[in-house]
């Protein structure tokens, strides 16, 4: 996540929540900064302290981004970290304490929670997968099945949970699938075309059966994406490839079978659910008077 991307995310997230009205004192340049409830119930200038609290056990991520949400509306706020991204936390743990103008803290509350809860949910689910395959040598990867506009945050959260990132987009790895093979005429032709056009980009070929794996390796693929192969077939592919390419299992994976798949000898488990199906981690903001 670049500094510019984080700043844009914070601005976009706050803009979703705050509509019209007078600006908050700490952020006169933010175009939409009106929280009607807080403006009506909280005296102007009142200071307070708020704790960002875990309501469930999990792994946290996105806390620095959540902190940026608070300081965007209350630049002079004091922040005290209670946890660091990647930490395992328990229900009731204080993750971040913020002191500043109450109106600003409450206006920032939902935006900060949405970011941290989403990222922490992904980190928590990722850690469950990483724990499930611990000791096998297999690495848990994410995919491009991310929430539109949130890919950097979600892939960062995967790393906080102990996983690794696959492709950030369509530009950093050439993924040759069946439609590409059909268009090019063969696996070998597709791989050769990528090598000619983008010689520095790693080439991965999607395969469904062991024979395709052999064909892809002989064509010069760097990685094989082994799609919907049961453990017995994966073991066969591992033996046939014999280290000539890295192997990534994907499709039909669940925590129930994760270890069995990892123990076949594949290098990676590619899990779209890390980002497209992770439930949020329940977090809350508790305001303390004074």
UniProtKB/TrEMBL annotation:
Function: Involved in the catabolism of quinolinic acid (QA).
One matching Pfam family: QRPTase_C
Reactions that this protein is recorded to catalyse: nicotinate beta-D-ribonucleotide + CO2 + diphosphate = quinolinate + 5-phospho-alpha-D-ribose 1-diphosphate + 2 H(+)
SUPFAM superfamilies according to UniProt: Nicotinate/Quinolinate PRTase C-terminal domain-like, Nicotinate/Quinolinate PRTase N-terminal domain-like
EC numbers, comma separated: 2.4.2.19
Record-given protein name: Nicotinate-nucleotide pyrophosphorylase [carboxylating]
Protein keywords: Glycosyltransferase, Pyridine nucleotide biosynthesis, Transferase
One of the record's GO cellular component terms: cytoplasm
Gene: nadC
Domain Quinolinate phosphoribosyl transferase C-terminal, first and last residues per copy: 122-286
Matching CDD domains: QPRTase
Pathway, per record: Cofactor biosynthesis; NAD(+) biosynthesis; nicotinate D-ribonucleotide from quinolinate: step 1/1
Similarity field: Belongs to the NadC/ModD family.
Keyword Glycosyltransferase in record: yes
Keyword Glycosyltransferase: yes
